[in-house]
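Marked as duplicate of an earlier ticket. Keeping the data here for the record.
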Amino acid sequence: MKTRDAMKVIAAHRGDAVGVCALGMASNEWWQATKSEDSFYVHGAMGFAASFALGFALSAPNVPVLLLNSDGSLCMNLGCLLAEAQQAPANLKHFVVDNGVYQTVSAVPMVNRGITDYEGLARAAGIPRACTVETVAELEAKIPEIMASPGPYFTVLRVEAEPSYLEVPPNDYEGAEIKYRFGRAMERRLGVKIFGPSGY
């Protein structure tokens, strides 16, 4: 299964969920599938997409949240699974793109490739709803249950490593612009004030 095909399936079942994307292929492919400006793309902070998504899900419990994580980012912050299990946000669905490499640095193999059972880690952390899918057909069959079930729901997406990180171009904005576009979208959607009178 290719990451882009998995993202297309998830995007088709997204509904009104807010996406939070780890840096790299997860962000690039989600942007190409959705062109979504009400998703948050974590650039330059490997490992922290899970923390951001959990915090957002807890602060906006009526908003469905899709965490589009990667295996490399998950391994940098395995404690996120403990926090998700303890907080148990019903609105959070955690997807992990598992390609076995660090795609953004020339597909360097991950040291634990083929050894670590991410679904097993999630269950051991206390997240009972967890699964692993390896084909588009499996994902299409499973996604209605994933979206309809209470979270946290942890899904490993077994995908092929891509020959080039930039084969799928990222969104054309980053840094502060990501913050402001996402923040303004959430102000409009949630009717809250995020930025102060000076605009930040």
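See parent ticket for discussion. The chain is about 40% helix and 15% strand.
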